[in-house]
Write a structure and sequence with these properties.
single chain; alpha/beta; 7-stranded antiparallel β-sheet; 10 helices; 17 strands; elongated; ATP-binding; Asp_kinase; EC 2.7.2.4; ATP binding
Length: about 400
C-alpha cells in the first residue's frame, strides 16, 4: 500500500476554509487506499506574530527554552485543528506533538537550531507505522523536535520541510508532497516576472542550489533526507488535490558531493587589464568575455576593481588569451594596458553550510596566513569559496583547507 508524507505549509492552512480543503485532499487520497502521514506548519503568520509578541514583551529576557516552548504553540495548534477536521470528514486521525509518547523526531540539545538524532529518530518512527496499519492518519508537528532531556527543540526556519523529508526517509515512504502557495518550482519569481514558467522537473542538486540562493519554496537542508526511491513534488494548495502534477524533484541526494575541497590539477594564469574608470564604460566585461569565449578559452574566475579587471584562465591557453585581450586593449580607448601574471593554483571549497556559517572566510584564510601562504585572489558565493594561491603553495594549501570541511 502506497505511503505518502504530505506537508502543508503555513499559507496552505492559513484559515479555516484552507484547513478544510487541505484535510479533504488528505481524505481523498486515503479513500484511494493510500496511507498518509500529515506534517503541518504553524498557521500562516503565527510564528512571526509570536516573535513580535516576544520582542515587545520580553525583548532579550527570554531563554532558549522559553522561546522554543512559545514558538511550538503554532504547530501544536495546527496539528490539533487538522486532525479534528480530518475526523469530521469521517476518517480516524491522531495528532502527535513532542509531548506524545509516539513523537518520533529526536534531536540534540541545541534548542533553537537542533540537529536530528538520526538513529534514535529512525527507531521511534516505527511507532507511527502501527497507527498507519490501524487505518489512522497521523498528523505531526513540523519544525519541532525533542532532545534527550525531553525538552522541546526547534529545527530552525523551514524546519517543517526537514520533518517531512526525514519522516519519508524513516518510514520508507513512496512519496513526499510539499503543499505550498505556488504551482511548483518556477523559472523565476512570478511576482517579479509574470512570464515565469512552471518546471515539470528539477534535480535535487538544482533545487538545493535554488533554495540556498533565496528561493522560498523549500528549505535546502531538507533534501539531505531524500532517499533515491522516494518520489517528491511541490504543488499548490489551491487545487485541493494531492495527486496533481506540480514540480517533481528528481534524483537522490548525493551526500558526498555536498562538501568538497578540490585542487584544480593544472596551473592557472592571471591576465590583468587596467584602464582608468573602465567600469563606468558599458560593455567592457561583455567584450572581454566574448573575445575569450569565441576562441574557446574558458574563464575560471573574474574580478573587477574600479580601474582593473583580472581574469583567470588555464595556463596552456594564457598566451593566446594574452594576445587576444591585448588587441582588445589597443582597440578600446578606455583601456590602457594588460599584464600576464605567474602560475597560480585554484582551490574550490563547496558546502551548503557556508551560507549559515559565520566566519567561514576567516576559517579558510587563517590557516593559510599561519603557514605563510599568500592569497592571490578569493571569491565566494553562498555555497562555494574559490581561493587562488601561488602554484608552488597549491598542494600545501589543499592539505590545510580540506580539513575545514
Amino acid at each position: 500500500m502506497e505511503l505518502i508524507i504530505a506537508k502543508f505549509g503555513g499559507t496552505s492552512i492559513g484559515d479555516g476554509k484552507k484547513i478544510k480543503k487541505a484535510a479533504q485532499s488528505v481524505v481523498n487520497e486515503y479513500m484511494k487506499g493510500k496511507k498518509i502521514v500529515v506534517v503541518v506548519s504553524a498557521i500562516n503568520k503565527t510564528t512571526d506574530e509570536f516573535l513580535k509578541i516576544i520582542e515587545d514583551s520580553l525583548g532579550s529576557n527570554v531563554s532558549d527554552k522559553q522561546m522554543a516552548e512559545i514558538l511550538s504553540m503554532g504547530e501544536m495548534t495546527s496539528v490539533r485543528v487538522m486532525s479534528s477536521v480530518i475526523e469530521s470528514l469521517g476518517v480516524k486521525s491522531e495528532y502527535i506533538d513532542p509531548y506524545n509518547e509516539l513523537w518520533p523526531v529526536q534531536t540534540n540539545n541545541n534548542i533553537l537550531d537542533a540537529e536530528l538524532d538520526i538513529e534514535e529518530s529512525e527507531t521511534k518512527s516505527q511507532e507511527i507505522l502501527k497507527l498507519l496499519h490501524q487505518g489512522v492518519i497521523p498528523v505531526l508537528c513540523g519544525f519541532l523536535g525533542k532532545d534527550s532531556d525531553g525538552e522541546i527543540t526547534t529545527l530552525g526556519r523551514g524546519g517543517s520541510d526537514i520533518t517531512a523529508f526525514f519522516l519519508g526517509h524513516c518510514l520508507n515512504a513512496d512519496e513526499v508532497i510539499i503543499v505550498t502557495d505556488v504551482n511548483g518550482v518556477m523559472s523565476t519569481d512570478p511576482n517579479k516576472i509574470q512570464d515565469a514558467k512552471k518546471l515539470d522537473k528539477i534535480s535535487v542538486e538544482e533545487m538545493r542550489d535554488l533554495a540556498t540562493h533565496g528561493a522560498q519554496v523549500l528549505h535546502p537542508h531538507a533534501l539531505k533526507y531524500k532517499d533515491p526511491l522516494i518520489n517528491a513534488k511541490i504543488i499548490n494548495y489551491k487545487n485541493g488535490d494531492l495527486s496533481e502534477d506540480g514540480t517533481e524533484i528528481v534524483g537522490p541526494f548525493e551526500g558526498e558531493m555536498m562538501k568538497t575541497t578540490i585542487l584544480y590539477p593544472e596551473p592557472i594564469s592571471v591576465v590583468a587589464i587596467v584602464g582608468k574608470g573602465m567600469l563606468k564604460k558599458t560593455g567592457i566585461l561583455s567584450r572581454l568575455t566574448t573575445t575569450l569565449a569565441e576562441n574557446d578559452i574558458n574563464i575560471f574566475g573574474i574580478s573587477a576593481g574600479q580601474n582593473s579587471v583580472t581574469t583567470f584562465v588555464n595556463k596552456k591557453y594564457s598566451m593566446e588569451a594574452y594576445h587576444l585581450l591585448h588587441d582588445m586593449v589597443v582597440d578600446c580607448g578606455e583601456l590602457s594596458s594588460l599584464s600576464l601574471g605567474k602560475e597560480i593554483a585554484m582551490l574550490t571549497l563547496e558546502s551548503p553550510d557556508f551560507i549559515e556559517t559565520p566566519g567561514i572566510i576567516s576559517d579558510i584564510t587563517d590557516p593559510l596566513r599561519d603557514n605563510n601562504i599568500n592569497i592571490v585572489e578569493i571569491s565566494s558565493s553562498q555555497t562555494a569559496v574559490v581561493v587562488f594561491v601561488e602554484w608552488e603553495d597549491g598542494k600545501k594549501a589543499y592539505e590545510l583547507l580540506k580539513e575545514i570541511l
